[in-house]
């Protein structure tokens, strides 16, 4: 039976180095990077280059890419796009190429490049990711982007939700997977309430981004799976 594990923050990814090269990594940054990426592809974006730094993003912007840059949940001055999924529903982005850097999510993606494959996951494409993984023969590691090296609740809940969808095909070998799965089942009937006092919810609410929170917690809106090929995310439909 295949195994599924959870890394609660990219700062712990080194503990999985022995299994990374034989696993598919699913990166989750629910609030809001991976939700933005899924939304962008669902609305016709051609590709997204995730980069770790603002400087790299600006270099791609200078080559004609749309630049999307966020730090501390706020848009960086001088770029066209922010970290709200609603920004990626714009018709002008259909067929566009985007370079993106965020506080946590793009860093998690760039750190995962030694994996067999790197997928982008969110609640918005949860079943699409699960369906794709059922067709694969590899173990899975869900990498939670967290917040500046610390675990967070929403990404851990996504990991638990994915495990819930895959529990007939995958074994949970480590406690982090069991923790995430049990936590999701505890809160799944009302995720907004379960997350009400979480640190990133409070951070976003101070910025008045209530609609982003509600949107990002919706399940199974899109049948798209972003996958990393080289340094570029492209979309596969499943």
UniProtKB/TrEMBL annotation:
Gene responsible for this protein: comB
Organism of derivation: Nibrella viscosa
UniProt-listed InterPro entries: ComB-like, ComB-like_sf
Recorded catalytic activity of this chain's protein: (2R)-O-phospho-3-sulfolactate + H2O = (2R)-3-sulfolactate + phosphate
Pfam family, one: 2-ph_phosp
Keyword Transferase: no
HAMAP family, alphabetized: ComB
Protein's name in the database: Probable 2-phosphosulfolactate phosphatase
Taxonomic lineage: Bacteria, Pseudomonadati, Bacteroidota, Cytophagia, Cytophagales
Enzyme nomenclature, EC number: 3.1.3.71
Coiled-coil regions, chain positions: none
Family as reported in the entry's similarity comment: Belongs to the ComB family.
PANTHER family: 2-PHOSPHOSULFOLACTATE PHOSPHATASE-RELATED
Cofactor(s) named in the record: Mg(2+)
């Amino acid at each position: 039976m295949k195994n599924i594990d959870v890394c609660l923050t990219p700062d712990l990814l080194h503990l999985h180095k022995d299994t990374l090269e034989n696993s598919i990594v699913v990166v989750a940054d629910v609030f809001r990077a991976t939700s933005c990426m899924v939304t962008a592809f669902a609305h016709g974006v051609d590709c997204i280059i995730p980069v770790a730094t603002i400087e790299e993003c600006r270099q791609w912007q200078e080559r004609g890419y749309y630049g999307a840059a966020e730090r501390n949940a706020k848009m960086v001055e001088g770029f066209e796009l922010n970290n709200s999924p609603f920004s990626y529903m714009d018709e002008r982005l259909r067929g566009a190429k985007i370079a993106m850097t965020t506080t946590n999510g793009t860093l998690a993606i760039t750190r995962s490049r030694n994996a067999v494959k790197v997928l982008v996951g969110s609640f918005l494409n949860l079943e699409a990711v699960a369906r794709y993984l059922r067709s694969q023969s590899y173990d899975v590691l869900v990498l939670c982007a967290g917040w500046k090296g610390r675990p967070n609740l929403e990404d851990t809940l996504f990991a638990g939700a994915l495990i819930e969808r895959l529990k007939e095909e995958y074994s949970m070998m480590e406690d982090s997977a069991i923790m995430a799965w049990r936590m999701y089942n505890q809160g799944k009937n009302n995720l907004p309430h379960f997350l009400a006092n979480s640190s990133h919810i409070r951070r976003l609410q101070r910025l008045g981004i209530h609609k982003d929170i509600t949107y990002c917690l919706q399940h199974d809106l899109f049948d798209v799976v972003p996958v990393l090929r080289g340094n570029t995310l492209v979309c596969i439909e499943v």
